[in-house]
Amino acid sequence: MTEPLFDKVAVIGLGLIGSSMARGMKKRGLAATITGFDGSADVRDRSRALGFCDLVADTAEEAVKDAELVILAVPVGAMRAAAQAIAPFLANGAIVTDVGSVKAAIVRTVASALPEHAAFVPGHPVAGTEHSGPEAGFAELFEGRWCVITPCARSTDASVEKVGALWTALGSTVETMTPEHHDIVLAITSIIPHLIAYNIVGTAADLEDVTQSEVIKFSAGGFRDFTRIAASDPVMWRDVFLNNKDAVLEVLGRFSEDLAALQRMIRWDDGQSLEDHFSRTRDIRRGVIDAGQDTADADFGRPHGHED
Amino acid sequence: MTEPLFDKVAVIGLGLIGSSMARGMKKRGLAATITGFDGSADVRDRSRALGFCDLVADTAEEAVKDAELVILAVPVGAMRAAAQAIAPFLANGAIVTDVGSVKAAIVRTVASALPEHAAFVPGHPVAGTEHSGPEAGFAELFEGRWCVITPCARSTDASVEKVGALWTALGSTVETMTPEHHDIVLAITSIIPHLIAYNIVGTAADLEDVTQSEVIKFSAGGFRDFTRIAASDPVMWRDVFLNNKDAVLEVLGRFSEDLAALQRMIRWDDGQSLEDHFSRTRDIRRGVIDAGQDTADADFGRPHGHED
Fold first, then answer.
1. Which of A258, B18, B121, B223 is most exposed, with minimal Cβ within 10 Å?
2. Integer distance in angstroms from the first to the last C-alpha of chain A?
3. Beta-bridge mates of residue A98
4. Does A229 touch chain B (CB under 8 A)?
5. Domain A181-269 has CATH 1.10.490.160
């Protein structure tokens, strides 16, 4: 254990990300005290039982009182209300950060809700699983992952540095960019993949000639990877789509154009163009593996055989 | 070791599937002799070095001579040529089967190329990884997976039963359906997912504002799962798309319609409809896990932390 980075940290929102951060900070001794709060009494009770916070408060006020750092880990659509709820109780010089998957909209809505005497450092850990809730969190979630920090007019150099140090200590590599650039990068790497996965799973459910049991049986051919992504938290993703509308619609337009081009190649038996396109995408896969963002093990290292 | 199911088996095409079948049959003693052949001299040499066949022949003739079972494990577009190459040398009463991912087109083109004295049992093991070539194969690839058999006019009851027994012995569960129904089921569970994955990886590569290194860095947010699928063999998939055109275009049309509907919900801030759609797709994921087609471990059980 080294000297804690923070005296008191408050985590608002105790789902997958919030509870993982609390666990990670506790494991590494990054905060002298960690308090938690969640709008759901049920989640508060479950979090108390899990014990990853020193104290789970019954009000936002109690949680953020005297906190040096307040982490907003609620769905994107609930960020502004969460910011308003904590605003009157923030200590002088408190740093507020968030973990939302969109940044420009959060800068607009959260920054204006916070008092002048607090700094705001927007952040986005690019990590997660398809599971939700306080039980799903674990201390290692952020290790080896990227965290994007998008400083805004309400960020000070010192607050950006401290929030960056927290993510580094949690095992992430920090990258800084503007909120707008973050939103377009994440639209293609995360948001559109989720939208497409949700979409194809829905299309499958609506086919009259194919039963749901057949879809499930034969899902190992590729479909199951989409179902995993499409199992992610519906409320979180609804908010992400609605709050990053410009970038999502822009990238989606390009995706649909490109898909129409592939569809045309199939209709007109243009095998050479198809093969050229498919060969090109292999290079990007190699880049993902070389960068340590995935394993090269066949089938993601899923177990084969009857033992699974 | 039990009594071998077959005296001599010939495997034509020594890629991921062919070499995995040879390894699986050898491991379980399902054939007294296994011969292999591949159109590429390089693949033949590498397969000899790997040693998963008793003999890798230099001609298709030598490979299939006196074989009780001949397995065509070449890309779909090469099936007819492979059938024509072996046809003159097939033993009386030989059974020919294939492992192609489309079935109606193969029934049309392969059955007519084979002599009357041979039976043909079309098959499709729904198993695979994103890797290709003889080095990528392993004996357990088919364990716990489904194999679809689509009997045709050239199948006899006895030949269907024997091919089914082979797949059962390799660890798969056999399901029988018509070639046409197979093609629509696989269009949604496998073919369209691959097409979409190839497409989005291409769209990402073409964005002017986002560098390839950014796409790779932030791929853990969902994109990397698409890159895995899009790393599959380009020639194999080109053939699958072109040879299952009707079902692919039909399902793709539905997918695009559904995607346009989601796009409209985003444009018009219809959060309730988005959330309803996303909640519904979670049920299908649960079905996939309950059916043992995937693991419920977070993130496919990918390792977290610096040890990975």
1. A258
2. 39
3. A72
4. yes
5. no
